[in-house]
Amino acid sequence: MHLRLYDKSSEDMTPGKGDLWKFEMKDFHFPLCITLAHIQKVYIVERTEDPWHIESILTMMRDGYGRTQILTQNLDINHWIIGESKYSYRRLELTKA
Question: Whose C-alpha in 14, 19, 49, 72 is 20 to 30 A from the C-alpha of 37?
Fold first, then answer.
């Protein structure tokens, strides 16, 4: 299976704008032998005063064999990641796929 993702260049608040970020597992201080089954929860956590507006999010993981798997899938968030109110979160737990 091939997944085609894009990083759409435009103003951040453009509806449907896509962003693609790649993180290495070593950046999170996990053992390198981690598998998808070891991951219990995935969160987005407010860390700065720069808010993020998230319409939807999909997280993926590539294992040691080069296989890419969907880890979480939340297609209807439509909230800010800053503060705690009716339309925002300080910490958002993502749903495992």
Answer: 19
In this structure, the number of other CB atoms found within 10 A of the CB of residue 92 comes to: 19
Read off the pTM: 0.68
Q: Rounded to whole angstroms, how far apart are CA atoms 60 and 68?
A: 7
Encode pLDDT of 81-96 as tens digits. Answer: 887 777 778 888 888 8
Buried b or exposed e, range 5-39, using 16+ CB within 10 angstroms: eeeeeeeeeeeeeeeeeeeeeeeeeeeeeeeeeee
Provide the domain limits for residue 45.
Answer: 25-94
Pairing of strands 79-81, 52-54: antiparallel
Task: Give domain status of residue 4, yes or no.
Answer: no
